[in-house]
């Protein structure tokens, strides 16, 4: 049986590119986790007069916080079919859906399922950065 250190992986997507995606995904995740407490600090009690003085600047906050997500979305959208399939396969290996020894099957399945919504799929994964990192580690890249 071949260990991950004995196996050479021929990736179309560069490991450094994946590491950039990991950094951006973790930054997105950290921003969400830092802002998400129990929501109580953002609740406003409406008592006859309080609603008149309440100003909501949520749109400006959301706009600035989503820059990293938008950058990552654009980077993923710029990948070619092979790179996108490998990125998805890395997530699946990192998540435990496939073993490193099943790398080629994971890539084949990702390519088969591939569509123009890869970024939406990946950005919807709560642990994207962690799973990409674990996937890279598993295949020894």
UniProtKB/TrEMBL annotation:
InterPro entries: DUF3775. This is DUF3775 domain-containing protein. It comes from Pseudaminobacter soli (ex Li et al. 2025).
